[in-house]
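Record 1 of the preview.
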Amino acid sequence: MTTENLLEIHLSCPKSLEELLLAEAQELGLQNARQRPALVSGQGTLETAYRLCLWSRLANRVLLVLTRFPVRSADELYAGIQTIDWRDHLDSKGTLAIDFSGTSKAIDNTHFGALKVKDAIVDALRDRMGNRPSVEKRNPDIRVNVHLRRDEATVSLDLSGTSLHQRGYRLQQGAAPLKENLAAAILLRANWPELARQGYALSDPMCGMGTFLIEGALMAADVAPGLKREYWGFNGWQSHVPSIWSRLLEEAQQRAEKGLQQEPLWIRGYEADPRLIQPARNNIARAGLADWVKVYQGELATFAPSPDKGQPGLLICNPPYGERLGDEASLLYLYQHLGERMRSQCLGWQAGVFTGAPQLGRRMGIRSHKQYAFFNGAIPCRLLMFDVQEQSFVTAREPQQDNNAPAQQAEAPALLSAGGQMFANRLQKNRRQLNRWLRQNDIHCYRLYDADMPEYAVAVDVYGEHVHVQEYAAPKSVDADKAQARLLDALAAIPQALDIPRENVQVKRRERQTGLRQYERQAEQGEFLEVREGQVKLLVNLTDYLDTGLFLDHRPMRLRIASEARGKRFLNLFCYTGAATVHAAAGGARTTTSVDLSKTYLDWARRNLALNGFSEKNQLVQADVMQWLAKEQGEYDLVFIDPPTFSNSKRMQDVFDVQRDQRTLINEAMRLLAKDGTLYFSNNFRKFELEPELAELYDIEEISAQTIDQDFARNPKIHRAWRIRHSAT
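->
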């Protein structure tokens, strides 16, 4: 065949698939093929173009180039389009759609460019045929693709019609589906076609809608990916040759029948979400693979593939890699657990883990021997390849090994990095130093670590058997990747150092909260943990809010209030979750009144009171504290004020600033304080300075040092506190 008989064919694809697509296209008959970003171009016959439509597992679109011409103005674009005899392509009463991409000095708007192309085609057909076609965006007779680059327009017919990743089997999909051609590319990089020929099994422990499994089965059974598609871009094309297409389609059907008649490979998927199981099975059935692919509900914790012939397999999966703050701990432990299941259940297998967070892949306790770069949409990702062999394991070892060492090693946690081990050592050192004090004072909730080492800028708080981690936002001078790696080091170290389950660790990012963000939920789990402090029980929430509902640094202040409350009328302003109120009630307070603007926190306070058997006689008031104080006429013997640094809730009439508003706040509170009463004032604003004028009005003693316990001794600026009384004179 001479080059004169060949057509110019372009294949578009997702970024990062070009190399694979080039090899595939050449195998399918594309000649003189070459690649550039997101595109493979070459030459072939119309049969080649049809074959690419039917068999390409990687391309998005197959474009048949009609012409190219220079474009220096909108008129030149119009004229160039009209040089094509559109009667060869579209019936004058047919439908068309225009895809226009690229810009130039003359045409800097793709919508305008598409409009000029449409006008040129419609006018040409109307002038020659007397009728004009209409625009149809969905399933038109032909789809015209125009790409403008460097003042040159390339005009093509889109033979695929819709993107080729739409195979026709996936009518239902999950929240974050992997496109079919990307899944196919991942399987190709994982060498699945060759492994399939050798009889390997295929398993996905987090299969979602089953895309990996379906694409893998289509490859193994020699089923053309386009066999189930009903619409093609050439269906209404005037130069379509049905005989060629019918022959290729029949050939593909025969190959599929032959492939599906062979003994199926062992292909199994597992998915924790029961809502996805039936949709996945529906997709499998539509693909004609019900005998080949099976999916079951199953957690990663129970993943244990058992192929029917004991053959090795390929594990392939796309675990989540997180977009929200606070995902770090759960994701880290997910990847660690995946590594544990691979080491214990998939020895001798190959494994491919596709992720947008390759740093998490390094926490799996097994070395990857190969990595491939991909893009999932705009997200840069990597396929991490593993040879699941004992020599690749990177896990913590027991001091003494015996003959069962490999099995022990498979179950062992991933080996900590040098930094992670250093962090673990510091946690254990801090706990040893605090242990005696904790036992003597019966303390179960405490701060174990607070950025003791500058490179690990986190606070670690212990709540019984649970741990709450706050990551301080790194300054802009610190590389974001390094900061993330250090956080992962810390999170990996915590369960091992403290001997607690990984699921008992929660992490949040601590940064300056402004405006309404200070009240925003971090999650919606609504799970409360009961903890004990002194003689009372309190509820904390480690997941939903930035803070847990219990400020640990105020423990001494709350215990002081409990010891002084007997017979007193207690007032708690900015009461938060009412922890100090519960202590006052438990200490024998005659009455308690708690004021806060947040209904959420007042409901929390109500639950805390009820948890300790205290009734509704403990008054809870939803109000702006400053407004309430201005109107209140009651008298109180013991007052506690721990205001926020700043607040501008939409329910407030004004913005509260503790430095600016302290005089009004304290004066109004002192107006309500009994003659021999005590007011405790505290806040955690590092730059706060008490106004000197207040010391002239009242008897004021700073007691900050007395209100900071041993677990916060390393950070004496955590808060400042004062005892304020009426002057004797």
